[in-house]
Amino acid sequence: KSLSVLRVGEKDYPTDDYTNVTPKIISYLNRNLHLKKDNPLSLVRQRIVNYFYKSFTNRGNPSFSVYDNLPPVVTTKQNFDDLLIPEDHPSRTKSDCYYVNRSVLLRAHMTAHQTELLRSGLDNFLMIGDVYRRDEIDSTHFPVFHQVDAVRSQLREQLFENHPDLNIFEPIYDPNNPNAFTNSISDPAKQSCHTLEASKMMETQLKNHLIGLVKVLFGESIQYRWVEAYFPFTHPSWELEIYYENNWMEVLGCGIVRNEIMVNAGSNNSIAYAFGLGLERLAMALYKIPDIRLMWSTDSGFLSQFQNKDVDAKITYKPVSVYPQCKNDLSFWLPPTLTVETFMNNDFYDLVRDIGGDVIEQVTLKDKFVHPKTKKHSLCYSIVYRHLERTLTQAEVNKIHKEIEIAATNAFNVVIR
Ligand code: PHE
What we know:
Mean pLDDT: 94
Shape: globular
Number of strands: 18
Number of helices: 11
Helix content: 25-40%
Largest sheet: 7 strands, mixed
Bound molecules: phenylalanine
């Protein structure tokens, strides 16, 4: 493959064997839906930011900084290494992330900015923006979504204002010589460097703070539960679920920031909690928006329902009208080099999205088949087409479907059945 460059954002990057970001995905980069004032994501963002400002003020001044305009192109160091995500962790794979090249990718979570902001001396901040993940295609998944991430750090004097006898760190841990101590996470309750008091105090504050947030958003009577979780960058870690339309829905991940991260960022004397939540899920539940693609709509029938509204107004989305779906199957034989197990579904989903764009509502793997005699492998995908703002004709759908067949043949060397 010849050496080439790829323009992402305002910069050119050399490509390599890791490059898998597509022109379609790059086209989402400057949309900034979370900052568009008539977009539901922006309303939820404002409500969350307001809640933070109300919860934490210092003599009337907000004690939080908000970063909602950080560029989404980050290094693997920012997205993974700085967060102690191991080299062989599945979240790093090409089939899960959009890589610009081996060392640069579109951030897969807002936590990618945590270390650099801590290092710049901040202790309390929010990071809000678009994140990119390769995933299946249906009404609740889109390769771009939006997250609010937060860090709240406290020094001993703040955390134990009323208990000057208590410490953040165990006596055997020396904050002036942090690297001499190996911090273990084998105790489910806390990191070995922290005292139980400090860890529990932070846990209580974190949980109260987040329950307060879901109550502000969904009302006092919202049912919720905490689920033990694992993230490489926090310990202990939890997920918060709320009971919504007869299901437990996960809304956020959180935990106590690993002390190694704090130390590497130059913050030796404090303990911090962090969380990350997805805006799309909250907006879909709050406003009863049935399809995640609607967030990207530029149609006035959609946007006008969120325009000039008080951020706390109760809004229930009314479908402008529902246009019919069109379903088409696509089956192909794989080349001898591939099997039904090794073929990358996400590669196919990206190709479908590249060609079909936003009229693709859903793609599902319908059938895997190995021919008993020839041993040839075949896959069948079902593609659901639906335009959000008008009716698609069968002829239009057939044309896109044909283009997908041709592109799949060229990209994967498959033979359409
Ligand atoms: N980054 C995590 C995610 O995207 C969420 C998270 C943020 C969890 C901060 C813990 C602390 O799922």
